[in-house]
């Protein structure tokens, strides 16, 4: 049942000393606590294999808060209250005997247990089974798991089966942190609360859609993970497909989790497939070489720590795809994402069609289309590019494009934009699954990614090199230029 206020819970955090926990989860939980959104008796148990005691664990969390929370948001009373909630158990997650300590901590507490698995997906099954075997769970226990779930459809099914033996689907929260981003939430409001857009949201009015998720970072010491995954599995199979689904889905009948997820699944099923013939034309894979970002030299992918010089793993993907249904027939969706790009930028651009009859200066005809720009990061906001008359007596009826702009930071200056993990953790506690990915969504997304990998394998072409600090291989620009279009550039 979805709750309006956050109930008390026992949160067992597996992988308590890992990157995700330190960089994202403690700062998010601290913010929730500071904003009065953690119930008074909620407790957090850190679980990891480091041989430290609870005091040393709290010290580590305190240090991480100092590093990742803005100084102005660190208040000593809030920090103390938050640290007092924390405890620590040293545990090898494969050792079922060690789970006795979790059972003893939770038994009789009266708070439902929420288990957060901030660990590699390969051990999700073992942890779930050990929790059950040790009697550490209760009838309301929930599990939160991270992406990527598996490496392909088959491995994701194995992992989901293992989770499903212990937790029913209604108590599994699969995180895709892009769904927790403020502007992604706004996408739902924008589309379904504004008749202006609701009536225009189809192939009659929209010519094409662009989704760009550019990262400045490289692989950040994660060679072991990333080289097996590549940008397709790391970013496209999950984050970019989720964004595409939210843009392309039909209106759900209500905001219930399953109503939204049913619509997203329909989009995944309708996504165009690739084959040996079209993959070379419609998809560009790239791998970064050395270059410079903001004046600082950075190594190429094959010179990263732990690298294997023969690797053909892609760090960049651009593609032209389509959603084959009545709403979107003939509307290309251009997707691109890459590491070591000139800046961190995630944005969606909806390009509307031109007016059927044009009466202005023929030289300005290419200007004559509206664009809706939905900026996820860095500066969250929504802009509608419209055409107005250029000012001045000497200009005649010259057109000028300009934005009707909603910048969330300046429109709502007092409201801090919460990190995605704050919202997601809050929804887990309240029992609302609408921002979490259902099993069939994950699996349809893998089916689609698997057929793309198969087409790549048949094509057998190495990724194209691109210098770090560039917008990817030139071929990704040529791909969209061939359609008489260009990537939106107003960075
Ligand atoms: N970091 C990020 O920004 C993101 C991460 N994710 C996902 O979140 C999950 C966690 O990622 P991340 O924090 O980066 O990974 P890390 O490797 O930094 O953390 C995982 C932690 O799990 C611990 N661990 C693994 N196996 C065991 C075991 N048998 N017993 C005890 N501890 C164990 C590791 O301990 P030890 O150090 O001792 O090996 C490590 O501290 C992954 O599924 C990842 O794909 C998803 C999106 C973003
Ligand atoms: O899931 C992941 O996301 C990050 C990018 O997230 P963002 O919120 O900073 O845009 C990416 O760097 C990482 O490789 C991937 O695993």
TrEMBL record:
NCBIfam families: zwf. GO terms for molecular function: glucose-6-phosphate dehydrogenase activity; NADP binding. Residues 189-487 form the Glucose-6-phosphate dehydrogenase C-terminal domain. The gene is zwf. Residues 13-186 form the Glucose-6-phosphate dehydrogenase NAD-binding domain. One of its GO terms (cellular component) is cytosol. Gene3D superfamilies: Dihydrodipicolinate Reductase, domain 2, NAD(P)-binding Rossmann-like Domain. NADP(+) binds at residues 49, 92-93, 147. GO terms for biological process: glucose metabolic process; pentose-phosphate shunt, oxidative branch. It comes from the Bacteria. Pathway: Carbohydrate degradation; pentose phosphate pathway; D-ribulose 5-phosphate from D-glucose 6-phosphate (oxidative stage): step 1/3. Catalyzes the oxidation of glucose 6-phosphate to 6-phosphogluconolactone. Substrate binds at residues 177, 181, 215, 234, 339, 344. Belongs to the glucose-6-phosphate dehydrogenase family. Keywords: Carbohydrate metabolism, Glucose metabolism, NADP, Oxidoreductase. The active site is at residue 239. The lineage of its organism: Bacteria, Pseudomonadati, Pseudomonadota, Gammaproteobacteria, Oceanospirillales. It catalyses: D-glucose 6-phosphate + NADP(+) = 6-phospho-D-glucono-1,5-lactone + NADPH + H(+). This is Glucose-6-phosphate 1-dehydrogenase. PANTHER family: GLUCOSE-6-PHOSPHATE 1-DEHYDROGENASE, GLUCOSE-6-PHOSPHATE 1-DEHYDROGENASE G6PD.
